[in-house]
Amino acid sequence: MADLYRLVYYSRNRVADGPEALDTAISSILEASRRNNARDNVTGALMFNSGCFAQVLEGRREAIEDVFERIQQDERHGDVSLLAFEPASRRAFANWSMGFVGASVHETMRYSGTAEASGFDPSRMTGDALFETLVRLAIEEEKA
Ligand SMILES: Cc1cc2nc3c(=O)[nH]c(=O)nc-3n(C[C@H](O)[C@H](O)[C@H](O)COP(=O)(O)O)c2cc1C
Fold it and tell me: Least CB-packed of 11, 39, 67, 132 within 10 Å?
């Protein structure tokens, strides 16, 4: 695709504490994401960790701008920090309308009861490093 762009951001989770509230929020985010992104030819991956979301979105520039506009208005998170928005030569998540790569981390947190359990903090990462982390987690998840 000639006009392929990639966007990387992270944000602070604002969903009320508790595993049920989180499960419900993540299920509803993924349901809307998969429906809309399949329609708009957007692909990517979403990670939840240490009280943060991190997400990669790939697609036509206008499609990415539209979805990111909606995402920024969403009250389930805040302090949305854009790390990268640039042309890309190919899709890294071609088969994922929105892959969720934080499931294992999410499980660990549920049972340990601490957001710090994994020690991963996307706010300390560059866009490239965050992108590479999501690609690596997606590959691990595809193998599982
Ligand atoms: C962390 C996070 C990631 C999201 N990712 C997407 C996404 O990739 N695509 C999408 O359409 N909506 C995404 N959403 C949901 C949007 O904010 C919004 O609720 C949704 O697009 C509305 O869709 P609807 O009008 O079809 O219900 C995300 C929300 C959050 C909090």
Answer: 39
